[in-house]
Sequence to fold (241 residues):
Amino acid sequence: MATEIKTRKELPKDPIVIEAFPSKGFVSTIAAKYMIDELGMEVIGSIKSDKVQSIAVVHTHVPMYPIRIYKKDKMILIFSEVNVPFQYVGEFTQAINKWFLKIKPQEVILLAGISGKSTEKEHEIFSITTDEKVKKKLKNLKVEYMDEGMLTGISSDLLLFCVDNNIPVTSLMAETHYTPDPLGSASMLEILNGLLDLKINTKKLIEKGEEVEKMFQNISEQMKKGIDDTKQISEYSPMYG
Fold:
């Protein structure tokens, strides 16, 4: 079976598409899950492939595909709870690229967590955009622009496809040192609020994030002292804080 995108409802014309495959610190995954819940987004389809291990996820007693398509007004969200094996990234992005040509998005926003950036501000958001209007908004939101760097995975392939096909595209990348990193996700959602006027209240996510970050800092300190305390980590699920 080839990788296929199936939707069961009519899509909005000229949609804004947000991509959220798993990334560093589960930043994109947590942000997208919180967005789905807070906005009451409707699942309207899925991406099916024999290249991903057979998994069914269950939410509120309902079995679902692990890679799903959600909709809210003019916005479409591609949300994945599983990693795509590196050798099949090309096949997945080709399927999404063909879909983009069909649905003609007015804008694509790619979400990711990255490491390796050293800044004074924790949970800094970096950006790349081909849209001058978005660039001005990002500047007003005090989002750092990435001048040099390297991106990999599905987001990088989609970014280049959008550039080649003149589709306005923006990549938002949260600098992260924790796994999971709900505070990085909250920072990302605040920028999406500013770009798309979503009005998502991130208070609950920030409160949980501070609790989780403190827990991981304590664990790190204990491990430095030679105390092996992995039980605390296993008790927290990074997907559904």
Observations:
- DSSP finds seven helices and eleven strands in the chain.
